[in-house]
Write a sequence for this structure.
């Protein structure tokens, strides 16, 4: 498929929200091992606010801006700050109501760049960045002009990145206090962000088939 239309992207967001809702308890259980156990709830609340803010939108730039601010207005905490920053960063690099592969790549790299301004965490620190950075890098590395291939590459890289966090020692945030004991469990944020990218990948939610 050559274009990511706004209707397709909204359907992808809806599917990601459903995925997050289905895995809410899992994300909170993972967060409870090294943190305060609120990640599932925080993710459902933040993503629900984003989806609500996207309803009725007819073009990418203002929709993503509304999604980012919708999250910030309705929730607080690191999960919503980072998810909000992602959509606001995407907004700065998206316009119109359909995007080709090049425009999809720049929208997602804009999202990542804005998240990187909000957190010092990088790959290997056992955070959401271990899913997000490889996902966006895999998109950029794809030479395909088929957007379904971009989202497939991102989903695969995000899932692999999240799986690798099992073997990592936490280097960031409160989880760092656990030292060696943080090894052996996946990071909750990497797991939830991987879930988002897996939900974004084909099949096409508008057609029930491939993009
Ligand atoms: Mg937490």
């Amino acid at each position: 498929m050559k274009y990511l239309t706004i209707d397709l992207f909204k359907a992808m967001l809806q599917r990601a929200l459903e995925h997050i809702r289905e895995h809410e308890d899992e994300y909170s259980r993972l967060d409870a091992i090294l943190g305060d156990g609120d990640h599932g709830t925080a993710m459902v609340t933040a993503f629900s606010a984003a989806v609500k803010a996207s309803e009725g939108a007819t073009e990418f730039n203002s929709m993503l801006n509304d999604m980012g601010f919708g999250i910030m207005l309705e929730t607080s905490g690191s999960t919503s700050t980072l998810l909000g920053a992602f959509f606001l960063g995407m907004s700065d690099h998206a316009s119109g109501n359909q995007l080709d592969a090049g425009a999809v790549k720049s929208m997602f790299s804009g999202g990542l760049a804005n998240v990187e301004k909000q957190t010092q965490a990088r790959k290997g620190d056992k955070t959401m960045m271990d899913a997000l950075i490889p996902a966006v890098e895999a998109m950029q590395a794809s030479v395909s002009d088929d957007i379904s291939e971009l989202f497939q590459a991102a989903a695969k890289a995000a899932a692999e990145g999240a799986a690798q966090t099992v073997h990592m020692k936490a280097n960031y945030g409160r989880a760092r206090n656990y030292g060696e004991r943080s090894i052996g469990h996946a990071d909750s944020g990497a797991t939830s962000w991987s879930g988002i990218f897996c939900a974004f990948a084909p099949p096409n939610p508008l057609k029930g088939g491939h993009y």
In short: The CA atoms of residues 170 and 176 lie 5 Å apart. The chain has a mean pLDDT of 95. The pocket of magnesium ion is lined by residues 31, 35-36, 38-39 (CB under 6 Å).
